[in-house]
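User: Please predict the structure of the protein below. I'd like the answer in structure-token form so I can feed it into my own downstream comparison script.

Assistant: Understood. Taking the following sequence of 310 residues as input:
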Amino acid sequence: MKGVLMTKMVQEQNLTNLTPEIDLSDKRIMTAEINRPALQLTGYLEHFANERVQIIGYVEYTYLMQLPDDKRLMKYERFISSKIPCVIFSTMTKPSQDMLDLAIKYNVPTFVTERTTSSLMAEIIRWLGVQLAPCISIHGVLVDVFGEGILITGESGIGKSEAALELIKRGHRLVSDDVVELRKVSDVTLVGSAPDITRHFIELRGIGIIDVKTLFGVESVKDTQSVDLVIKLEEWDRDKEYDRLGLTEEYIEYLGNKIVCHSLPIRPGRNLAVIVETAAVNHRQKKMGYNAAEELYKRVQANIARKRDK
């Protein structure tokens, strides 16, 4: 079943549950959008996005509190009975007991937080956006190298895990080995993570499973990392032309997002860890506006021009 468990949101956002009588174990949030029910509390329920998390801030709260009791309860019951997933009161506001009784009657969990409405909305949207983002699982290794997320792919047994282990020994961090879960959090950003069952583990053929966090410490692992570069390991093909300058970028597409991809031929004696480190630094340099291949091309063209002038 899709969606995010409400208990997970309560824990992550540090919310206080005012309706412990309601069972949250099977309740899920299905959308990353949120709603501030200003118009709905006045009685206008047309186009009400009732599937969203509802947040009542200071303005909505003071509007309700200045109403006579009977009118306040009538408006709140119309709102709370609209099959909403939950209600969160922010900015140190707190519903009255009769409002909580209505929440229990209609099985709507009600929470409270001391955080301001704006910061709460921004954080919940960000967190739910990641949790509910489109997700795929791919075969590969994801490592954090100098702050760049490097996704290493290739056929089984080609040396992905061994390269990751060497990078870890050189001070970089493992995100996931063997299976990487990719989530599309925006049109330009993919975030990778490890499945819960294999997090922090690496499989080395001939040795078995090792726990990276236990062997190398907490500094050697990371839970999530944006994917900035893909390195595809492949067997050396004598008849294939490999890029030697890097003037043109190749891309690979995941979930509609294009990521720069380098095909790296494997031959005995090549130090994969050093090559991956260099690729990460070079990619960062390109993002900062400097391209070594273009600089070389400019120098060659300038040299040809000087010789032509002579």
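That's the full token string. The mean pLDDT is 90.
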